[in-house]
Amino acid sequence: MHMADALLSPAVGGALWAGTLAAIIYSAKQLREKMDDKMVPLMGVLGAFIFAGQMINFTIPMTGSSGHIGGGMLLAIILGPYAAFLVIASVLVIQALFFADGGLLALGANIWNLGIYPCFIGYPLIYRTIVRGSASPKLITFASVLSVVAGLQLGALSVVLETKLSGITELPFNTFFVLMQPIHLAIGVIEGVITAGIVIYVRTLRPDIVDDLEGVKTLSSGGSLKKVLVITAVLAVITGGALSWLASTHPDGLEWSIEKIYGKPEVPQKQNPISENLSKLQEKTAVLPDYSLPSKGEEENPSWPAVNPGRSISGILGGIMVLVVILLFGIGIKAMRKFREKT
Amino acid sequence: MTFDSEYFNLGYLDTLSYKKTFVHRLDPRVKILVSFAFIIFVVSFPKYEFGALMPFFLYPVFLLTAGNIPLRAIAKKVLFISPFAVFIGIFNPLLDTKVILAPFGIPVSGGWISFFSIIVKFILTVSTALLLIAVTSFPGICEALARMKLPKIFVIQLLFLYRYIFVVLDVALRMIRAREARSFGKRGREIKNFIRLISVLLVRSVERAERIYQAMLSRGFRGEIRVLKRHRLRYYDILFAIISIAMFYIFRNFPVVNFIGNSLSRISK
């Protein structure tokens, strides 16, 4: 359920990046105050472990297809919420860069969806309140399934909301919601069972790994956690609001373009008043008025739509031409490099 | 993709990043900044925009050719398009059937245009992310993050994570091979076995982290890694940033494609 750049608008992507950055800085600050040096290599190696662990497949019961773990809640149980959040963020950074899972703008959203909910909601509010001290395996399983399911449901809901707010998909909210939530319920149950299985088994091998870091983990039960939630939420809302306000003051917002497309589809050949006004405006605001594009009226409109056969043909021709030029440019650089290497 | 090829790919992108070309030498901060700006310009197009996205291919093509990166290395990954983006996008042609364009008399619905717009945006943003790492190297990115004032703990453990991916992957690879050798078909992949396998991997990783920590202590570790600063902002870094962002701005705000198309059709007449 990695988000992709292509499904996000700059406002939504930017708001989630702001929230994610705030959470990273806050978590790092919390860790710096309370942890020992041992934590840093442990975090790094466990991140690598999650990475490697995701490449080991298992068979999903009843379906026969294979899946892999996410590991967010497992990290939270072993490292505590703050360190786990940083590790999840790092794993996603590497996935975004090396495997192109999503992209750079969507990275903020992905860290938010996969990191915030398990670390700052599922773990402290559900897992920790159920499992205290030495709990029975059944209790651990129960807590782990419940917290993983909660985290994944919130994550999936966020994906739906982010995509809808970005206005890219035509899917109605209800359909999208019904598509996403039940799948993630099933995934959550399996992931919860596996997480519990690992915790229980590791406890028999090396009990200290699961229980040792209590000092760092107890951080989570204080009031500071609520603070981080409130701060990130407020930050996200403010930046989201500011960015969407900025976006809406520009005329190429989503609503505007839809209105334009659906508003006057039956006047293909005639000049429409908006494009005329726009072309005037553009002449006034052009950086280099003398070199501004020839004003035949129709080509001044800055964004494409409006049904006009001549216009769309010129768009296609121009698009192909641009691609050819870029291709030649690339071949040119390659040829230059070869020439230079020879001499 | 199988495990081995994925493992190989990770190392392959890493080896590409140690070439010495103009784009490899640019300050990583500049490359991160310009790539981010690029992505924001690309995704800021409204959903029915298609043609005007074409000039943006200039940036990835520039990184690819100037960085001397083999096209196949990037294309293979990009063509393996994220199932999620396609899955979400494919509903657009089904749900949005209003005809908004008719080039050469062929009616095209808004849904198809917005679907292809998603795909083009996807190719542009994904290839840029891959090229960024291929021309920068991961330690370079970490250096840039540290100098952009991200928390030290975060950057240090990111460096650790990257270094130990190759080590832990090696362990995991051996475990997978052992499992394959001992099982037939889907047997041996049950959740019960998987839990045992991954628990052992977890314990091994933690034990390795402990040994690393001991080794670091004995070499004078005081809770901080000094990151080597290999890059300085030079005039051509700033020039590169200004030129690229100015070009993105022009591509975004002026109808470059229509202008070229129109002058072409005028010439042909």
Notes on the protein architecture:
The complex is a heterodimer of chains A (343) and B (269). In chain A, 72% of the residues lie in helices and 1% in strands. Chain A contains 13 helices and two strands, in the order ααββααααααααααα. Chain A has helices at residues 10-34, 39-53, 72-79, 81-98, 104-130, 137-166, 173-205, 207-211, 214-217, 224-249, 254-263, 273-285, 309-342, and strands at residues 58-59, 66-67. Chain A has a two-stranded antiparallel ribbon. The longest helix of chain A has 34 residues, at 309-342. Chain B has 269 residues and is mostly helical. Chain B has two domains: 3-136 and 230-257, no CATH class; 150-218, no CATH class. A two-stranded antiparallel ribbon of chain B has the order 1-2. The N and C termini of chain B lie far apart (51 Å). The model of chain B has no long low-confidence stretch (mean pLDDT 81). At the A-B interface, α1, α2, β1, α4 and α7 of A face α1, α3, α4, α6 and α7 of B.
